[in-house]
Write a structure and sequence with these properties.
7 strands; 137 residues; alpha+beta; 4-stranded mixed sheet; 6 helices; 3-stranded antiparallel sheet
């Protein structure tokens, strides 16, 4: 089985200069864990929910939030994203993806075309789902 069989196609992307407030809104709305960061259609990085949580104040969304806490949402994606992400092509195998996720200790792999444009994304959850019998999913 190849990654094209399990990947999420046409992933939502975000620009380098978008605010973390925008990232938070996308994560909260769509329950994603990763966004692919692009510039002029090409992949530049990945921002994860963990990157977001490390970069913003823990007081966001609480009763004790201050202006200073809210200002952390003004940081830009390029300040917190992971650069030069590990990628694969859609014809790569599930075993190749699992090996990369394990070796690099990452939680997703952007799937890119020959021009380094993102065409999909595969997470560790996607890989596990392929190993489970259909009834357990």
């Amino acid at each position: 089985m190849n990654l094209k069989d399990i990947m999420t196609r046409n992933p939502i992307t975000i620009g380098l200069d978008e605010s973390l407030a925008t990232v938070k809104e996308i994560f909260d709305t769509y329950k994603f864990h990763h966004l692919l960061v692009v510039e002029e259609g090409k992949l530049f990085g990945v921002v994860s929910d963990r990157d977001l949580l490390k970069a913003i104040s823990p007081n966001i969304g609480t009763m004790v939030v201050t202006y200073k806490d809210l200002a952390t949402l003004n940081k830009r994606v390029h300040q917190v994203m992971s650069r030069k992400p590990v990628t694969l092509r859609e014809d790569a195998t599930i075993a190749e993806a699992a090996a990369l996720i394990n070796t690099h200790r990452i939680s997703c792999i952007p799937i890119v075309d020959e021009e380094f444009r993102p065409v999909g994304i595969v997470s560790w959850r996607d890989l596990i789902k392929t190993l489970l019998p259909r009834q357990a999913q």
